[in-house]
Design brief:
2 domains; globular; Beta Polymerase, domain 2; four-stranded mixed sheet
Length: 169
């Protein structure tokens, strides 16, 4: 999926030969990965972006890494969906107990069907390449794209809009 003008020397830098193919492969790899551990918590937010920003202040003060993904992240990077009802957040925790501790740090309780889903960061890159946008830590846009593609029709539409906004493709 990479190409170079030369095998060695100054022109040997690799470039992506077919970005669409690489992106499809990445989404397939994300889909094929083991299902992540998840803890759902109840929240009463009317606005998930503002609510998450307030909730995440607790993680920030404790030095816990976190980043939103899915619809909330897409609404920050490339607004498209008219309403966002739930939020998916990666937090620096490897176990269910760690995810529950992260929820507790923010004053939240696990509840089946809660609108906030906490998951471990899927990769080191997802953690280190997250960036602050409009008061939220946002996972890398390619990861947000892959996560959106996996949540159904509305997610697929938002993913394609994200791809257009990011000027790639």
């Amino acid at each position: 999926m990479l190409t170079a003008a030369a095998q060695q020397g100054r022109d040997s830098g690799r470039r992506i030969a077919d970005f669409s193919r690489l992106l499809r492969s990445y989404v397939s790899a994300v889909a094929a990965a083991d299902p992540p551990r998840v803890v759902q918590v109840g929240v009463t937010w009317r606005d998930p972006v503002a609510g998450l920003a307030t909730t995440a202040e607790h993680w920030d003060t404790r030095g816990r890494a976190w980043a939103c993904t899915g619809a909330v992240a897409a609404s920050v990077l490339a607004p498209h969906l008219t309403s966002v009802g739930s939020a998916d957040v990666y937090v620096d925790a490897d176990t269910i107990a760690g995810l529950e501790a992260a929820a507790s740090e923010a004053g939240l309780e696990p509840i089946e069907g809660g609108r906030l889903s906490l998951r471990p960061f899927p990769t080191v890159a997802s953690r280190t390449l997250s960036a602050r946008r409009h008061g939220l830590n946002v996972a890398p846009w390619l990861r947000v794209y892959a996560d959106l593609r996996l949540i159904g029709v509305r997610g697929e539409e938002a993913a394609e809009h994200l791809l257009e906004v990011m000027h790639v493709g």
